[in-house]
From TrEMBL:
Residues 245-411 form the Amidase domain. InterPro entries: Amidase_dom, AS_sf, AtzH-like, NTF2-like_dom_sf. This is Amidase domain-containing protein. Residues 9-19 have a biased composition (Low complexity). It holds the Pfam family Amidase. Gene3D superfamilies: 3.10.450.50, Amidase signature (AS) domain. Residues 1-67, 225-245 are annotated as: Disordered. Transmembrane segments: none annotated.
Length: 656
């Protein structure tokens, strides 16, 4: 059975189940009337249509359908094929999840009758919190009647463990606006087909705000390429145009990866020798200028892994930026310094790049939201390249609102991309777009044409078993819990890919090998001259990657590009407009600072098999801080159709 949460506003009458016929069952309320539905014996919620509410955020649906035109038939066929799947077996009983969401919704809206109805009647029901317990339904109801509304919260992980055919435990972890967290543990029991809570425990923890005031000199140097006395490099302007237009990023502090041109500054790309060979930039990169255009503060340039050719976050020259979300562990890279700055509260937004995961990996390791934009949707002018076929600009933030504001700003600088017009890679070598010797990039802030066919609202989350299996066992479990939370928060249905559209593990390995060939081939074209002229200037591990890259031939690159074109076609068929592919952002949480090079390489290889999918296809991807292994964060990633960058953020924004 496909699973979809109930429509917001569904309500069950107080103790309505007590009045049903003995052999009848109650299911989620009618989406239109709000009345509780009594089903005939043997009927199911699916057959009655009660678990198939209207798609979330329906206001966009008519616009998408109207804009679809001749393409609508093919899109509908893709949607029909995707919808033929079922939810993974581990996802949970649809009726139980529907009841749980009704409880969560009622709690957020302070719907006392609904809350009372969802707790089992009688004297055996127990609710505990803060060292005391309430026993019996009447005592719990009396407590709720006098309690003020609870602060708004959002689900992050929903753990579901069946303990009997008609009993299950749900442990739900949530986060509040003040970054505080909470956990509710509930024992649900099904009687006469109706799920109700019989035991519940609630606990909350105040929010923790990280501060950089106690950073050591070494930590400061590991995060920032710009010295403290020169920060901020550009102040925030309330009216950046000099008129009455307020900027959307006023007061937002931005840490910019040390690969972007900023007039008057010298790009270092994470390597002292590289910086020594550069001149100060004369023009600011369009992506940076777009943020200034919206009033953002450019706090400073932040460190990167050398030449952006790593996802570890380590740098032998400047040190490893601290990871406050996982002390004693690496931050992930190559957007390492910007991610650390945001995680520590030294910046609100990070501007970085993602070639093979350099936004998604640090986002996963440091517990941030991170968007890799659609390839070519953001200008790469004024950016030191690594592998232009995959290089993409992205942003990281602690919250979705800031991430969305930053994404909207930089998305004005690139090409208009639509699902109907994919930009497949050329079958021949792509010459990297080197900057002029002085680092001059074309000037100005341009607004890209508005796409007349906005991406479809996302209503389906697809899971591929082969991709989830690439993660560590603990990461797979927290991925499941995070996916339940995402589905409940968004109202999207969850299905498992099957048949021709699913991803074959052997084919995935072919795609990864081809991606690695093209990435390394283009990396040598971008940086081979510098590497050859400066022997011994790089971390040995990165130097070895360039050594391998130097041996690749044009024919090998062409053959690999042909494989990637097929992979892109396959992925676009799987991720039709209105769908996302969900997978772990990384194979596991961040390795420790003292992990051996062999361990770093093992983790890197496993993670790259996950991150390469969005990279090789040029599709947008969003990492969400929904996972946790022990005390360590690990991200949940969603890959969308081409041009669906903002739709991904919309999906991740909890419905109210």
């Amino acid at each position: 059975m496909r699973w979809r949460p109930p429509v917001p506003g569904q309500s069950a009458g107080q103790h309505a189940h007590q009045h049903a016929a003995p052999d009848a069952r109650l299911e989620p309320s009618d989406p239109e009337t709000g009345d509780t539905q009594t089903l005939a014996p043997g009927a199911t919620a699916a057959s009655a249509g009660l678990l198939e509410p209207a798609a979330p955020r329906p206001a966009h649906a008519s616009a998408v359908q109207a804009a679809a035109g001749p393409e609508s038939a093919s899109v509908s066929a893709s949607e029909s094929a995707a919808s033929a799947g079922t939810a993974p077996g581990w996802f949970g009983d649809p009726a139980l999840l529907a009841a749980f969401w009704r409880y969560e919704r009622a709690l957020m809206t302070n719907n006392i009758p609904e809350l009372d109805a969802l707790f089992a009647a009688g004297t055996d029901t127990v609710r505990s919190e803060a060292g005391s317990a309430l026993v019996g339904h009447d005592a719990i109801a009396a407590f709720r009647a006098t309690r003020p509304p609870v602060p708004r919260r959002y689900l992050r992980r929903v753990h579901l463990r069946p303990i009997a055919p008609d009993a299950a435990v749900i442990v739900a972890e949530s986060v509040r606006g003040d970054r505080g967290t909470g956990t509710q543990t509930q024992l649900w029991r099904r009687v006469d087909g109706v799920w109700a809570v019989v035991v519940a425990h609630v606990s909350t923890v105040p929010g923790v705000q990280f501060s950089g005031s106690q950073l050591t000199e070494a930590e400061e140097r590991a995060i920032w390429a710009t010295p403290q006395e020169r920060r901020p490099l550009r102040p925030s302007l309330a009216h950046p145009d000099g008129d009455d237009r307020p900027g959307s990023l006023v007061g937002i502090r931005v840490a910019v990866k040390d690969l972007f041109a900023l007039a008057g500054e010298t790009i270092g790309a994470g390597n002292p020798r590289f910086r020594e060979g550069r001149e100060p930039e004369h023009v600011t990169a369009p992506a940076v200028q777009a943020l200034l255009h919206e009033g953002a503060e450019i706090t400073g340039l932040a460190q990167t892994d050398e030449l952006a050719f790593s996802i570890a976050g380590t740098n032998v020259h400047y040190g490893t930026p601290p990871n406050p979300a996982a002390p004693g562990h690496i931050s992930g890279g190559s957007t390492s310094g910007p991610a650390s700055a945001v995680a520590l509260g030294l910046a609100d937004l990070a501007l970085g790049t993602d070639t093979a995961g350099s936004i998604r990996v640090p986002g996963s390791y440091t517990g941030l939201f991170g968007l890799r934009t659609t390839h070519d949707a953001v200008s790469r002018e004024g950016l030191v390249p690594l592998a232009p076929s995959f290089d993409t600009v992205g942003v990281l933030a602690n919250d979705l609102a800031t991430l969305a504001a930053g994404a909207r700003a930089i998305l004005t600088t690139g090409a208009t991309v639509t699902p109907a017009a994919p930009t497949h890679m050329a079958p021949t070598a792509v010459a990297p777009t080197h900057m002029a010797p002085t680092g001059v990039a074309p000037s100005g802030h341009s607004h890209a044409p508005v796409d007349s066919n906005p991406p479809a609202p996302i209503t389906r989350i697809i899971v591929a078993r082969a991709l989830v299996a690439l993660a560590d066992a603990d990461t797979q479990l927290t991925f499941q819990a995070g996916l339940r939370a995402l589905a409940l928060n968004s109202g999207a249905e969850v299905i498992e890919s099957r048949g021709e559209t699913t991803i074959d593990p052997h084919r995935l390995e072919e795609w990864f090998d081809a991606f690695r060939v093209v990435q390394q081939f283009e990396a040598w074209a971008s940086d081979g001259a510098f590497v050859s002229a400066n022997p011994g200037a790089l971390d040995p591990a990165i130097g070895e990657r360039f050594r391998v890259a130097s041996s690749l031939t044009e024919q090998q690159a062409q053959d690999a590009r042909a494989t990637l074109a097929q992979a892109t076609e396959r992925l676009e068929a799987l991720i039709a407009p209105g769908s996302v592919l969900a997978l772990p952002s990384t194979a596991g949480p961040a390795p420790t600072l003292d992990a051996t090079p062999a361990e770093i390489d093992r983790v890197r290889a496993a993670t790259l098999r996950l991150t390469c999918l969005a990279s090789l296809s040029g599709l947008p991807a969003l990492t969400l801080p929904y996972g946790r292994c022990g005390t360590l964060p690990v991200g949940l990633c969603i890959i969308g159709s081409r041009g669906a960058d903002l739709a991904l953020i919309d999906l991740a924004t909890p419905r109210r």
